[in-house]
Design brief:
23% of the residues lie in helices and 33% in strands. By secondary structure, the protein is α/β, with parallel strands linked by helices. A hairpin with a 4-residue loop joins β14 (312-319) and β15 (324-328). α4 (135-149) crosses α5 (164-177). Bound molecules: adenosine-5'-triphosphate (ATP). Adenosine-5'-triphosphate (ATP) binds next to α2. Keywords: ATP-binding, Nucleotide-binding, Transport. Residues 40-260 form the ABC transporter domain. Pfam families: ABC_tran.
Length: 407
Amino acid sequence: MSNIQHNNEVLVKVEGLSKKFCKDLKTSLWYGVKDLVTGIRGGSKDQSLRAKEFWAVKDINFELRRGECLGLIGHNGAGKSTLLKILNGLINPDEGKVTIKGRVGALIELGAGFNPILSGRENIYNNGAILGFSRKEIDSKLETIIAFAELEEFIDMPVQHYSSGMKVRLGFAVAAQMEPDVLIIDEVLAVGDLGFVLKCFKTIDNILPHTAIIFVSHSMPMVSRMCNQIVLMDKGKAKFQGQDVSKAIDLYYNEFTSNNSSDVVFTDNTVELVEASIEGKSKTNNVYKVKWGESIILKFKIKVANLSSIPFVTLAVYDKEQRGVAEMFPSGQNSDLSIVSNEITYAIELKNLYLSKGFYNITFTASEQFGSNAYFKIHKALTIQIDHEKQIWTAFLLDSKVIGLNN
Ligand SMILES: Nc1ncnc2c1ncn2[C@@H]1O[C@H](COP(=O)(O)OP(=O)(O)OP(=O)(O)O)[C@@H](O)[C@H]1O
């Protein structure tokens, strides 16, 4: 058992942490030799950037207490994994200091921490010993770990023959079941199948009250579900950090939304979308702001060529992660519409928009009739931003109120 008892103590303290890498292997080896010679002569390492070097992690600071979960987010190459490797002692920083109290469980790289030629069972004993458990203590945990990883059949097979998912199962089972004070989890968790990922989240919920967790992920719903503080990394630096998780997630998404061009998915050249707007609203940076619960009228003007009948329009709503959240098959089509100078304008009423806060793209499709092949389909025909003070991660925030108590 860990000897750390207090609830709010700082378990991880990171001060001015920096790590530089070299973009070129030959130069990197040459710098390594130079640093070694300088070290032998008693000199100190050159802390400035030399040619072809860059900061993969630069001046990162944070404190993490028991019961807290820090989300490390940022685009590919931002420096998240490098930071985790420094925290786990796999690589040394060039500057700064890491202080960690207690036992560290880590799931960083696929298969990292396992000896590939040893069996799953032998690896559990090895890892347990590294974490300071006696053989007897590991004996008592063994069955739980194997059962959690669901590897009963394969536990005596060398780890090198495990599938990616099996390695992650074993890695997480060992890291989480060995009573860690600090748990470090990289994106690799996502390699597990849905059943296992759900099981991991349940375990994380259970151990969080007595553990400090550092979690790297590109899945913002997962981050918002688990984390109570965030470091958003960009080119090694903390671009934002703090407890305002929704603000950090907004900033993260904004890094990817600069491209506002719409995407035509399909066209047979009989239909072209010439205008898409929301009645009575103007757009800023291609985005229409709509209040939560508001009723709006969407307007789509299309130009048709060689069509005698009015196309049937369907709409789909996608969130920022491209998950479909709603579809619309507007009723009343064909009745009042007419083709004027080869153009048709659809005014579509959308009542009480209870989508939760955030950005949504609308996909517009025109077909001969409901259910038939599309003439034309375009993503991001319209982008809307729903305004509400509450940031939630389900697609809808429904309008509800108590109308009676105790009958
Ligand atoms: N051993 C290394 N030698 C040289 N450069 C490295 C090394 N390891 C990482 N890098 C570089 O450091 C930068 C940060 O990489 P890192 O893996 O930490 O990013 P990340 O934020 O984890 O990215 P991802 O989201 O893709 O996992 C990248 O430019 C990467 O190429």
